[in-house]
Amino acid sequence: MLKVGVFGVGHLGKFHLNNxxxxxxxxxxxxxxxxxxxxxxxxKTYGIKRFLDEAELIAAVDAIDVVTPTHLHFxxxxxxxxxxxxxxxxxxxANTIEEGKKIMNMVKEANVKLQVGHxxxxxxxxxxxxxxxxxxxxxEVHRLAQFNPRGTEVSVILDLMIHDIDIILSIVKxxxxxxxxxxxxxxxxxxxxANVRIEFNNGCVANLTSSRISMKKxxxxxxxxxxxxxxxxxxxxxxEIIKLKQPDESDAFSFDIETHQGTKTISIxxxxxxEGNAILSELSSFVESIEKDEPTVVNEIDGYxxxxxxxxxxxxxxxxASVVNQSAE
Length: 329
Prior knowledge:
By secondary structure, this protein is an alpha/beta fold.
């Protein structure tokens, strides 16, 4: 049995507790949370031991799950890695680029497993494309959420857009060439809505819009590549592929269009999206990586690269805001 300890049992932490309890090879040893009211509720509801000392909990387990506010990710991860424990940490991996670099180096040195909670990698709408060849030339992303005071200690970039940054980096196997970004702080002290354009060295361009002050929810990515369009709806969990029909395809709906190159047949298909719980899938994947001594699906390098792009975006937004302020003066 893999012994696991959870740090942080707030809103998301409780989801994690529920899912850890569903993994048969895991023993949930206990949790750490400084909030007495929250801790008492979890002890009563889940029957799990509360630890009052962080090091004591880490010493009692094989792996920890870090679901604390972002600014506390690094100190907890650092303590666990130095004690030779495996780490699952929610996104973003750390609060600053410097912390992210230190975590990468420590993981390598300690030879432990680390997985970052970029949960959309395990969304059934995305995993339904595992057998498709994805080589997008243009990507359009919309991630809109209704305002929720929880999680606003970080910007919309680190709160919401980082999900899509990670997905895009996992698809586009190329270095970032240029980033343009604008964002506005509306209800908090950090950007609540942002629009970003990322250009890659291979020619791919990604346009991302994220907002946490929308009237409706939306989590969609549209991929445009040679001879194909692929739409992924992470919220509704469905996927659509529109492409030039191949001679061996027979199960897709198709129709003909006339082009200056002659008649072409377009096929429309909806890959089977399995029922699935993305949080359970990512935690199970982390456990499997430890048990089989295999790389984690979203490792510390993935977590760092997503952070790096997110912080470049924040830097661009900050600089553009200062230019606007200077002009106003």
